[in-house]
Amino acid sequence: MFYTPEAGHDLPHNPFGAIVTPRPIGWISSRDANGADNLAPYSFFNAVAYFPPQVMFSSTSVKPDRDGTKDSVGNIRETGVFCVNIVEYAARDTMNASSAALPREVDEFAHSGASKAACETIDCARVADAPANLECRLTQIVQLPGAANFVVFGEVTGVHLRDDCIVDGRFDVTRFQPLARLGYRDYAAVRDVFELARPDD
């Protein structure tokens, strides 16, 4: 089949999210100007540069109490910092619980049962037992076409790695099985890893 987004796909569910998969999940923690913490997962997330290390995530919907966006973007606008917490398979239910649409004053760490610790380089909370955390300072927020499409870019200023995930000097993802977002309500865990050498290596 072929369709254009403008005309629609005539399927019971939008296939777009199932085409671009798997997608890593950025479990974004942020803090508002009054010190209230927020934690929310975003599957439009990735690393975008090595030097200096930079990441991005995008928010594509709104909350009625957040002036055209969601809590994460609103908080980051106020404070200029956020933390990316890497989601392991074992934390799938906690991550999912933190995705609930809650009033802005509700702390999703407490609501979901996620462990909380302080960041080192920024004034923000992080998921204490996550396999890795990327502390970030905002570089820019870009508004994309569409009513509520915002891409948040940040430079990584601090990196936490859980000790049990470092094997022979490498960060071993098979030790925690990263959770990935597929289409619809589907997820996957990374369990099988193989190497490919580039032709010019």
TrEMBL record:
<dbReference type="InterPro" id="IPR012349">
    <property type="entry name" value="Split_barrel_FMN-bd"/>
</dbReference>
<feature type="domain" description="Flavin reductase like">
    <location>
        <begin position="18"/>
        <end position="173"/>
    </location>
</feature>
<dbReference type="GO" id="GO:0016646">
    <property type="term" value="F:oxidoreductase activity, acting on the CH-NH group of donors, NAD or NADP as acceptor"/>
</dbReference>
<dbReference type="GO" id="GO:0010181">
    <property type="term" value="F:FMN binding"/>
</dbReference>
<dbReference type="InterPro" id="IPR002563">
    <property type="entry name" value="Flavin_Rdtase-like_dom"/>
</dbReference>
<dbReference type="Pfam" id="PF01613">
    <property type="entry name" value="Flavin_Reduct"/>
</dbReference>
<protein>
    <submittedName>
        <fullName>Flavin reductase family protein</fullName>
    </submittedName>
</protein>
